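Input:
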Amino acid sequence: MTAPAAGFDRTATTLFDPAQTRGRGRIDLYRSYRTAASLGWKMEANWTDPVLFFIYSVAKPVSAALILVAMLEVIAGPSGREYRGFVVVGSALWSFVISGIAGLAWSILDDRERYRMLKYVYVSPSDFVVVLLGRGTARIAVGAMGAAITLAIGVVVLGVPFDPVAVNWPLLVIVMALGLEAIVVIGVILAAVCLQTRQEAWSYPEAVAGALFLVSGAVFPLSVLPMAIQAIGLANPLTWWLEGVRHALFPAGASAVGGPGSLYTELTGQAAPDSSTIVLALLATGAVVTLGAAVAFRWSERRARDRGLIDQTTGS
Amino acid sequence: MTARAFVGRPSAGPREAADWSRGRIVANNLRSVVGRAFPRVRGMVREPSWLLFEILLPFLTTCSFVFVYRALRAPPEYIGFVVLGGAMTAFWLNVVWMMAAQLYWEKDQGNLELYFAAPMDMMSVLFGMAIGGLVMSGTRAIAVLVVATFVFKVQFTVDQWGLLLLVFLLTLAALYGLGMVLASLFLMWGREAWHLTQVLAEPVYFVSGLNFPVAALGRLGALALATIPLATGLDAMRQLAFEDVQPVFLPPEAEAAILVLMTVFFVLLARFMLRNLEERARREGRLTVRWR
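Output:
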């Protein structure tokens, strides 16, 4: 007679302990997150030359801002310089959006298509979403660096007016926290999409970010859009995040949400939203998107499991 | 007994079997081009999600820049500049993502050694990639151009259709020639390739004057005209498609000549680099080591 496997033999001295399979709750979640974040950073950055990595990280957001500044300069000349703050802040913050969305989606594609590790990560005891969030953290950190450098270049080189004393710091902290949460959940939605698609989905995060750029008031006020698209913009948490950051940095600056011809002003009668309206709107729209992301990810995960997509590799 | 090898015809041995006629080499390379283009075209049919992500969403990005100009009350031809730039980015992104970085990814997937071992020219593989990619990026470019022209009522004033078409084709030739050069470089640089794809997007859009006349950038614009096919092609097409574009450095005829030079230079350079790479691959065996 063969001996029973360890853990199944009730007479053995080392008894199977079912409690071990339950894990240690939050401690395990934190450990998974920390390990995934550290792995993400190592894959993203620590193998490369720091100077080159710095150039790579800031070249994209700085150039994006410079495109808009050049457009302003070509059309409006010196009279357009008052809008520089508006476009520089919008395009700098957009690097958070691109990196936040791409971080999670690319983790799926990296692990499935390049390293072919997704199936092993998936069957490991770690929570899959927590691992993805950890992997995405490194890219958000890179995006944050790009945003900070772009803002610094905007202030120092492009003459964007910035007064640290006038900044509404509590509002800035609140909207940044809520905004980052909104970006990450949009990233979760895109990760759900990438679980279903083939290798060429590398460019999808950027395409989604580009589309959101239109309805977020990032570099132009929503009032220039048709009313129906303005409504989509008002339901988008990124619009309120950008509005909140601008409101905190430049309290007397132009609003992307309100103003003549805007749906917001037509509905509320106010020229621009105040701080509390911004925070409430960001909370409400963020909650809706979070709920949508949770549903989308669970559905996608189940479908990927059913159809064997987790260890699928593609190419064209 | 004489060793016999069969490669489409009976032969006395491997040496004779490897002695191909010129016609056979050309036919084999043409088959390689078709073979490499096929999965790209077929993949488009198999998974239609690219219609949303490769056409509709990038179109919305182009719309964003149109609305920037609308917010600034820019002259109508500037809306046309954005639309033209939006259409041409499709080709640039295709060159960066599906040409330049492709050999590096093929290495990661384990296909690269098969390419080097197969009896074909690597240029055929890259040419096949270019043709397959052109189908997708061409569809995207046409969609952006046509839809945006109708939605934003862009007025084109073209007097020299022949020259415009020639400049467009020369731009594509130079762009894909550059893509072939970058494919070899990315393969040598390894993991840095990933970061380079990022650097080749917005920074290149900026120096190429994607949404505005490149001459507005002064010396930087002139340098871009001399080195980046996207900048040269866009500036020439802008001058040929719209009236009174200002400021400009060179007339479109001169820019077409620059594009011819760029095409010849990039294709020859790509050929030289690929030969070198192939030799290294066979001698050192390092190019098939993954994830570096």
